[in-house]
Amino acid sequence: MSFNPRRRIYLMRHGSVTYFDSAGKPVLPESVPLNNAGREQASAAGRVFAEHGVKFDRVIVSGLPRTVETATRVLAETGQDIALEEWPEFVEIRGGKLSSIPDTELRAAFTAAFEGIAPEHLQFLGGESVGELLDRIHPAVDKLRADPDWDTVLVVLHGGVNRAILSYALTGQRIFMGNLAQTAGCINVLDVGEAAIDWVVRIVNYSPPSTLQAESRGTTMEALFHQYRQSRGI
Prior knowledge:
Elements: E1 7-13, H1 36-51, E2 58-61, H2 65-78, E3 84-86, H3 103-111, H4 130-146, E4 152-157, H5 159-171, E5 187-192, E6 199-206, H6 220-229
Parallel strand pairs: 1-4, 2-3, 2-4
Antiparallel strand pairs: 1-5, 5-6
Helix pairs in contact: 1-2, 3-6, 4-5
């Protein structure tokens, strides 16, 4: 009897970036680069792959600079020269205009989507809803799985997008498990078989520079909320 091994997806979140300046003013998320910590996180992930002799057949990013820079730094450590594939359907969940969100609704706008199982109608920062995110992420994941032209792929995306993918892998359903932590620069390991339900989630949120993540018990969106509120004096 023949045995067909599953294929492997290494799913990363991009390294750390600085979304708000020291006064709490937002930086354009479409162009923000990695900060010093983010560059080290990306290189640290690359060193882990290199130490274990991992080689990628393909490398997929969302196209936003922070995913491109993270993937480039990973490849610099592994010594592979692979052209990055930009899949814009994998861009982060899109926020709306921060200034239009009332003070009383601000915290929920930042954090509600990442607390437990988020309802599909819930909007992130007054912009894209959870359901709209799933509408584009699930078909993109299905497209990747349907393509036979890879065995091991590196996919470097975003915190919200990764949660959508992990939720899909864990449940096979339209569920968004917002409280699945995705530390900047983290690595998730997913194996996929031929059947749609054949997912094996092996590692979630492995952070090479901080394996026990002892430095924080907060979330990324809680931290960003506290940074932004300074600009409103609340």
